[in-house]
Write a structure and sequence with these properties.
123 residues; 3 helices; mainly alpha
C-alpha cells in the first residue's frame, strides 16, 4: 500500500481544518483516528486507496458533527439556513471536491478550502 496517499489525505484534510479555524486538538485527534481507520481499510482493499482522502474527510466531518456541529460551513450562500459542504463523489474519490449541500455547486477541491477572512464566520 502507498503510504504517501494516506499522508496526502491527512495533509489535505488538515489544510481545510486550518483554513476554517477548526484545527483544534479534538479535530486533529479525529483526523488521526480517521487516517488510522482508513489505513486498515485501504490494506483490505488496495484498489480503493484512491478513495481514502475523501473518506477521511467524511470521517472527520462526521466526528466534528458530534463534537462541534456542521463543518465545513458553506460561505458562498448568503440566503437561507446555515448549511455545510459535503464531499463529492459520495465514495470520496478519486478527486474529492467540497460541494454546497444546498445548491450542489462545487466549492473547492479537498485541501483547498479558503479561509472566511477577517469579517467572515469561523466555521
Amino acid at each position: 500500500m502507498d503510504n504517501a496517499l494516506l499522508f496526502d489525505a491527512r495533509s489535505r484534510v488538515l489544510a481545510d481544518l486550518q483554513a476554517r479555524g477548526h484545527a483544534t486538538p479534538g479535530a486533529v485527534s479525529a483526523l488521526e483516528d480517521a487516517v488510522s481507520s482508513r489505513t486498515w481499510w485501504a490494506e483490505q482493499w488496495p484498489e480503493g486507496v484512491v478513495y481514502v482522502a475523501g473518506l477521511v474527510a467524511q470521517d472527520v466531518q462526521d466526528a466534528l458533527l458530534e463534537q462541534v456541529g456542521r463543518w465545513p460551513l458553506c460561505l458562498g450562500c448568503t440566503e437561507g439556513p446555515e448549511h455545510a459542504l459535503y464531499i463529492h463523489p459520495d465514495l470520496g474519490g478519486p478527486d474529492p471536491t467540497w460541494v454546497c449541500e444546498e445548491s450542489g455547486t462545487p466549492v473547492a477541491a479537498l485541501g483547498t478550502l479558503s479561509s472566511p477572512g477577517p469579517a467572515g464566520p469561523t466555521a
